[in-house]
């Protein structure tokens, strides 16, 4: 039998079990809502930052750079390829002002049908005011509010080969010897930037955490926009999509609910997984700060933190422990005794009398198309 | 079972015509009997295929099965998952024989759909606790010495829907998350040695290039033992749904670890506790504890015919009971079959190659008297581990483990030859 069954893996730190309350939060206040607050607008701008840069050295990305936006005629940056609709809007006299921006950013496709900007719009007036105040700080024509220190816009995390698939011949040339490998001399040395692009995994001890931070409040906004469509506003799960919150004290129930709060052993897994694979269908689109904020919000939904203003960062990350950490054990299947060393399997008269059928298949014809009920009662899915 | 049958081949008809009594195939049997009086027209009359020319070469540049086999396909269970991109379908085990699974019938499990990767754009990186982090192209990888090995791959959740009782009617659904092909690839050990593993290393973590960027922690000892980095299956390139152009092969261990679209292997000194080895692929027990790192697939078997999707249509007389057995520990040493629900057992005949961590084919040839049967099979591996009953498993683990259900399966064969998935006392 495999020796790996007995492998004891790692050394589990003592559990710091956070106090839990049993109820899910029903209402979560949004962040500070002072109209026109550039600092608050900087947080709102994170939704834009995947496509737009602003501040010193800002360049066009998926969307145009936004320095000196106030007073700019729409569709007129020389180096950016706008939609025809946006160029026409500028030709028709659309100039970006706090007022026109407010209309546009509330529902971009309503104001400029045909715009390339995929963003659906900001629902909250406060968010609109704040983000416009933030952008105005980078425009000389705008009110002379002191511009906040322009944080470098996070670059979208994209792998090198995803971005520009090289052919073999275009790959970096081998070193002088032609080889880096030790034995066969095959392959080439991985560059530091390449390793950084792909090696984004996080361990429970915090190894791999990027510098960054995000609050519960920010996370709520991000969650509502990116995650709630599948996971529900409070992580309750829509349909068969995963439930992320609740379920505490259900692991011994007939129908356990395995969530981040009730089951997952380590918070690092949340950060790692959201950053590498979420949102489903748009992986690697969130900034590191976004992922801190979402992780903070998930902690809040699971009552691991209770302060809406709680900020999770690389500095306090490993202080957080999830409640179920201590309930994971090593593989001890071998101790169940289904082996010759324990007892040989019986061959004759193994049961006292004729065998009775105790249960029939509950679905009599599973040929696709004939299943007429949603068998949520089934004993678990495939994952 | 109401599955539409395609026209029977002449061979099948003549096989039927040999049976004199207890025929239950209705009109087909009647036709055969009636035809015999005047001679079977399939024999006495010249058939189209015997007179006219068939298609020439290159009619099918990549060959596909006969249209009469169109029902032999992977199938899914729609209610099981939220989206087809993160779902599973099942190998039609009841239609297959031998131990090799055809590439197009190997079950699929994706976490973010089938990644479409140009092999010229594919890279494999080895980084972490190595002397020299390396990047390989596919061309590089094909210059390492190659190995060909046959292994089964079983999803840890195979039979996972049966923990609370018999639920799905067909071995395709109860046991179809397994397949067995021959892989061609490079020993992972060679690649790790090429980078130079530091003495502090204890673990590796493969990562996929798909949109789930699948990751699992694997002990270095296993990585250096028998893992392969494979680019071919059954002699041809990996199928896209199996990780084209490159996948990891982790013999005997749960399928989730066989990372597809393999793009990176990190070497470290601690496990990473990734999502698929914490929130998933851990086995919740009745007491609320959960086993983690339950990698090995336990000995398991299933009778593939007769089974709910493969009923007996020939009536009494000679009956081939056929099935598959496998163990993540090594070779299968013995398979016992019971026709009375586990009271009495007969050792079946293993046929074909017996390879470590590969599917094994077993047969028990009986004369069926037409009475109902409660068919079971019980596999044992070369290390003496054998399949427990489902009730023994439940007693040890409860009903919420999802994974690693290797309990003994029972098929109820009725007098009319139909078969149902049941549980027994």
Automatic annotation (TrEMBL), chain A:
Which InterPro entries did the record assign? Answer: Cyt_c-like_dom, Cyt_c-like_dom_sf, Cyt_c_1A/1B
The stretch of residues making up the signal peptide is 1-35
Please list where the region (Disordered) is annotated: 145-183
Biased composition regions of type Low complexity, renumbered to the chain: 154-177
Name all Cytochrome c domain ranges: 36-139, 214-302
**Keywords, ordered alphabetically:** Electron transport, Heme, Iron, Metal-binding, Signal, Transport
**According to the lineage, what is the superkingdom?**
Bacteria
Specify the protein name: C-type cytochrome
Automatic annotation (TrEMBL), chain B:
Q: Which Gene3D superfamilies match?
A: 2.60.40.650, Oxidoreductase, molybdopterin-binding domain
InterPro entries reported for this sequence:
Ig_E-set, MoCF_OxRdtse_dimer, Mopterin_OxRdtase_euk, OxRdtase_Mopterin-bd_dom, OxRdtase_Mopterin-bd_sf, Sulfite_DH_SoxC, TAT_signal
Q: Which residues form a coiled coil?
A: none
Is Oxidoreductase there in the keyword field?
Answer: yes
**One Pfam family linked to the record:** Mo-co_dimer
Q: Does the keyword Metal-binding apply?
A: yes
What are the Moybdenum cofactor oxidoreductase dimerisation domain coordinates in residue numbering?
A: 293-409
Report the residue ranges that make up the Oxidoreductase molybdopterin-binding domain in this protein.
111-272
Protein name per its UniProtKB record: Sulfite dehydrogenase
Q: Organism source for this protein?
A: Roseibium aestuarii
For this protein, the Enzyme Commission number is 1.8.2.1
Main EC class of this protein?
oxidoreductase
Give the matching SUPFAM superfamilies.
Answer: E set domains, Oxidoreductase molybdopterin-binding domain
Task: List the PANTHER family hit by this protein, alphabetically.
Answer: SULFITE OXIDASE, MITOCHONDRIAL, SULFITE REDUCTASE
Q: What GO annotations for molecular function exist for this entry?
A: sulfite dehydrogenase activity
């Amino acid at each position: 039998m495999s020796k790996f069954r007995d492998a004891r893996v790692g050394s589990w730190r003592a559990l710091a079990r956070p106090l839990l309350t049993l109820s899910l939060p029903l209402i979560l206040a949004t962040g500070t809502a002072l109209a026109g607050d550039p600092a608050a607008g900087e947080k709102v701008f994170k939704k834009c930052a995947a496509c737009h840069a602003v501040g010193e050295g800002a360049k066009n990305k998926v969307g145009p750079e936004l320095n000196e936006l106030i007073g700019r005629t729409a569709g007129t940056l020389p180096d950016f390829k706008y939609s025809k609709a946006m160029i026409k809007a500028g030709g028709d006299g659309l100039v970006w002002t706090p007022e026109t921006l407010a209309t546009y950013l509330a529902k971009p496709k309503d104001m400029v049908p045909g715009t390339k900007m995929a963003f659906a719009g900001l629902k909250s007036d406060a968010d609109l005011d704040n983000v416009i105040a933030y952008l105005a700080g980078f425009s000389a024509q705008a009110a002379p509010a002191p511009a906040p220190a322009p944080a470098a816009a996070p670059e979208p995390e994209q792998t090198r080969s995803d971005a520009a698939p090289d052919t073999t011949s275009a790959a970096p040339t081998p070193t002088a010897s032609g080889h880096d490998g030790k034995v066969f001399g095959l392959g080439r040395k991985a560059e530091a930037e390449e390793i950084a692009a792909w090696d984004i995994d996080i361990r429970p001890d915090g190894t791999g955490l990027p510098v960054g931070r995000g609050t519960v409040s920010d996370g709520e906004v991000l969650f509502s926009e990116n995650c709630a469509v599948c996971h529900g506003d409070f992580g309750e799960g829509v349909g068969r999509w995963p439930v992320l919150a609740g379920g505490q004290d259900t692991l011994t129930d007939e129908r356990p609910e395995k969530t981040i709060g009730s089951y997952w052993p380590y918070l690092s897994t949340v950060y790692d997984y959201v950053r590498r694979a979420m949102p489903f269908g748009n992986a690697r689109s969130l900034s590191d700060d976004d992922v801190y904020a979402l992780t903070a919000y998930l902690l809040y939904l699971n009552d691991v933190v209770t302060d809406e203003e709680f900020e999770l960062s690389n500095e306090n990350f490993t202080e957080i422990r999830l409640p179920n950490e201590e309930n994971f054990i090593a593989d001890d299947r071998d101790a169940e005794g289904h082996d010759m060393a324990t007892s040989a399997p019986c061959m004759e008269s193994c049961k006292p009398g004729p065998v009775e059928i105790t249960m029939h298949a509950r679905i009599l014809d599973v040929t696709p198309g004939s299943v007429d009920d949603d068998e949520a009662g089934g004993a678990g899915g495939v994952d | 079972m109401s599955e539409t049958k395609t026209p029977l081949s002449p061979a099948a008809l003549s096989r039927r015509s040999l049976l004199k009594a207890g025929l239950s195939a209705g009109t087909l049997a009647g036709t055969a009997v009636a035809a015999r009086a005047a001679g079977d027209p399939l024999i006495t009359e010249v058939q189209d295929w015997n007179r006219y020319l068939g298609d020439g070469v290159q009619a099918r540049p990549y060959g596909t099965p006969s249209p009469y086999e169109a029902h032999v396909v992977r199938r899914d269970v729609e209610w099981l998952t939220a989206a087809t991109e993160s779902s599973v379908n099942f190998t039609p085990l009841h239609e297959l024989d031998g131990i090799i699974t055809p590439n197009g019938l190997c079950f699929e499990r994706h976490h973010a759909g089938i990644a479409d990767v140009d092999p010229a754009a594919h890279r494999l990186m080895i980084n972490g606790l190595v002397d020299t982090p390396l990047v390989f192209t596919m061309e590089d990888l094909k210059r390492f010495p190659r190995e060909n090995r046959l292994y089964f791959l079983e999803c840890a959740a195979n039979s996972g829907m049966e923990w609370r009782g018999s639920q799905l009617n067909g071995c395709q659904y109860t046991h179809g998350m397994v397949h067995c092909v021959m892989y061609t690839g490079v020993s992972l050990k060679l690649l790790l040695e090429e980078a130079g593993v530091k003495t502090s290393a204890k673990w590796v973590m493969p990562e996929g290039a798909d949109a789930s960027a699948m990751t699992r922690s694997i002990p270095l000892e296993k990585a250096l033992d028998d893992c392969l980095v494979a680019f071919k299956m059954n002699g041809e390139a990996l199928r896209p749904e199996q990780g084209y152009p490159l996948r990891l092969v982790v013999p005997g261990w749960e399928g989730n670890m066989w990372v597809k679209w393999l793009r990176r292997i990190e070497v470290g000194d601690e496990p990473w506790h990734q999502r698929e080895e914490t929130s998933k692929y851990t086995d919740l027990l009745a007491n609320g504890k959960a086993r983690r790192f339950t990698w090995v697939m336990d000995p398991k078997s299933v009778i593939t015919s007769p089974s709910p999707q493969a009923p007996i249509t020939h009536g009494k007389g000679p009956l081939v009971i056929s099935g598959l057995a496998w163990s993540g520990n090594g070779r299968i040493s013995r398979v016992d079959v019971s026709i009375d629900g586990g009271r009495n057992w007969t050792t079946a005949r293993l046929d074909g190659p017996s390879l470590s961590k590969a599917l094994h084919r077993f047969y028990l040839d009986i004369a069926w008297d037409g009475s109902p049967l409660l068919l079971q099979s019980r596999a044992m591996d070369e290390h003496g581990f054998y399949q427990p009953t489902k009730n023994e498993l439940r007693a040890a683990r409860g009903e919420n483990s999802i994974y690693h259900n290797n309990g003994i399966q029972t098929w109820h064969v009725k007098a009319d030859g139909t078969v149902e998935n049941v549980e027994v006392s």
